[in-house]
Each structure stands twice: as structure tokens, then as C-alpha cells.
Amino acid sequence: MTDTTPFVHASADVEDDVELGPGTLVWHLAQVRAGARVGADCTIGRGAYIGPGVVLGDACKVQNYALVYEPAVLGDGVFVGPAVVFTNDEYPRAANLDGSRKSADDWHAVGVTVERGASIGARAVCVAPVRIGAWALVAAGAVVTKDVPAHALVAGVPARRIGWVGRTGRPLREDSPGQWSCADTGERFVADGDRLTPANPS
Asked: Euclidean distance between the first and final Cα of the chain, in Å?
């Protein structure tokens, strides 16, 4: 019988009330804060940070030194590349106008939501509040400042859609204007502006 007990490296800092799903791995120097819920078969890489109350679905991969600040929510199968940052403060300041240090009561945290199967490339920054649609792909180094549609490929600063990707992450092929297909799966899609929908939904 396979052992599915979560593994936490001795150098990792995982607070007592964190939920770790079966088969999840937390590697060297990672920090997982109070109230975080991490699904089954996830991997939290070296030096990664998972903020208080952050939610990860099953089979997520958070690579080395990624910073996932609360109240981020990640669906199943989300990939977060090395050194990615999810912000959580729309109007960041270190101190109040009277010079006193800001506390948790002095600001309202906003989060990044990443839907099922989406991938965030290395060193990308997602500026909350934003939603990354299912199966979307954010290119390495991109700065996301607005919502990303499902299946969109976005790149640049600020990030803009430059194409569409399938569930395998590979770019879709445009067969005719507004008609796209995936060579890997045979799935077909129809594009309408910044929205992509299955051509033959089941």
C-alpha cells in the first residue's frame, strides 16, 4: 500500500492549523501560514511562501521562491512558476499618515484567483485583485493587471493576450477566422473577442 502521508521537510515552517492533503510535499525552507488549505498531491517548492488562509486545490505545483499572498485561491492543477508573486494590497503603504506602522486592521487584503489548470510562468507578477481563467497561460515575466480569460495566452508588461492555449498548454491553431483547434486533443473552439468557448460543448 502506498504511503500518502504529506511530507514536510525538516527546514520548512508549516503552522499547526494548516491542512495538507494526502501525498503533498513541502520542501526546504518553504513557509505555509496559519489556516492555509493545501489539497492532495501538491508540491510546495524550496523557499515558497503560502499566506494565511490561502487555498490550493489538488495537484498544484508552487515552484521555488514563489510568493502566494492571502487571500489567494488556486483551483486544481494550477502551476505557479519560480519566483512568481501574487500581490494582495491595492494601495500599499508601510505607514499610516500619522507615521504609525500599518497593522492588519489598517488595510483590506484583495486576492488573486487562479482557475483550474492555469499556469503562471517564472517571475510573473499578478496584481490583485485579478482572476486567471481556467487553462490560461501567463508568460514568464508578465505583469497581470486585469482578468485573464480562460485558455488565453498573455505576455508583456502589462500583460496582453497574444494567443490561445489548449488544456495541454500548447498554442491553439487558427483553422479559419474565429475557429481554433488543439492538435493534441482534437478539441475545437470558437473565439468571440476575448472569449473562447468550446465549439461542441458536451
From this structure: 37
State how far the alpha carbon of 95 is from the alpha carbons of 44, 99, 127, 129, 151, in Å.
32, 6, 21, 22, 40
CATH 3.40.190.10 fits 7-92+103-165, yes or no: no
Is the previous residue joined to 149 through a cis bond, with omega within 30 degrees of 0?
no
134 CB burial (10 A radius; 0-12, 13-18, 19+):
middle
Which residues, listed in sequence order, are joined to residue 49 by a DSSP beta bridge?
31, 67
Give the residue from 17, 5, 8 showing the smallest Cα distance to 53. Answer: 17
DSSP string, 53-120: T-EE-TT-EE-TT-EE-TT-EE-TT-EE-TT-EE---SS--SB-TTSPBP-GGGS----EEE-TT-EE
Task: Characterize the bridge pairing of strands 37-38 and 19-20.
Answer: parallel
Contacts of 201 (CB under 8 A, 6+ apart): none
pLDDT tens for 3-34 read 789 999 999 999 999 999 999 999 999 999 99
| Spans of all domains in the chain | 7-92+103-165, 170-202
Residue 20: CA atoms inside 13 Å, Cβ hemisphere, count? 21
The string of pLDDT tens digits covering residues 145-155 is 999 999 999 99
